[in-house]
Design goal:
The chain folds into 2 domains: 120 residues, no CATH class; 44 residues, no CATH class. Helices cover 78% and strands 0% of the residues. The chain is built from 6 helices and no strands. The N and C termini lie far apart (66 Å).
């Protein structure tokens, strides 16, 4: 269900980036020069960055319904940060009614971000990394104890056999 939000809004941004470029200028003006320093071929203008963000949202939204849902959720979470900061800066709005509306949208995006982080952490019923690590340590400890017990028993038998002057079988 969450993927529809990203596919639709991302497609709108790809098809009409100028609609959002004006509000994105605050972030893109700071990000553009940094991207240009990384690689001259990377886009640095507001409309192009809005279009790239939209394309990432469409891609992530589509992948959210596949086996690649965890990396897709992280990708979408990354796109939510600039989208939320540029689209709903409630702290800079003077009108109390508009400020409240922008705050609500900001908090909605924050909630969606939380859902994406949960989706990124979801292992689909499989044990997660912390459980697997604890389980592996537990099994390693059991194996070491079992080996130590076996070694102790064999050493005891060898000592008895040696003290009786017998040869051990095998």
């Amino acid at each position: 269900m969450m993927s529809a939000l990203f596919v639709v809004s991302g497609a709108k941004a790809v098809m009409d980036p100028d609609r959002l470029a004006g509000t994105a200028v605050g972030v893109t003006d700071r990000l553009g020069p940094r991207l240009a320093r990384l690689h001259p071929a990377l886009p640095s203008d507001a409309a192009s960055l809005v279009r790239v963000n939209g394309a990432l949202q469409v891609t992530g939204g589509l992948l959210l319904n596949t086996a690649l849902h965890r990396p897709a959720a992280m990708l979408l979470a990354g796109t939510m940060v600039p989208t939320t900061l540029t689209g709903h800066p409630f702290w800079s709005v003077e009108d109390p009614a508009q400020r409240a509306a922008q705050r609500t949208q900001f908090l909605k995006n924050l909630s969606v971000l939380g859902g994406l982080l949960l989706a990124a952490a979801d292992t689909g019923g499989s044990p997660g990394l912390p459980w697997r690590t604890r389980h592996a340590l537990h099994e390693a400890n059991r194996s070491v104890r079992r080996t130590a017990r076996t070694t102790k028993d064999k050493t005891r038998l060898a000592y008895r056999a040696a003290s009786l002057g017998r040869r051990l079988p095998g």
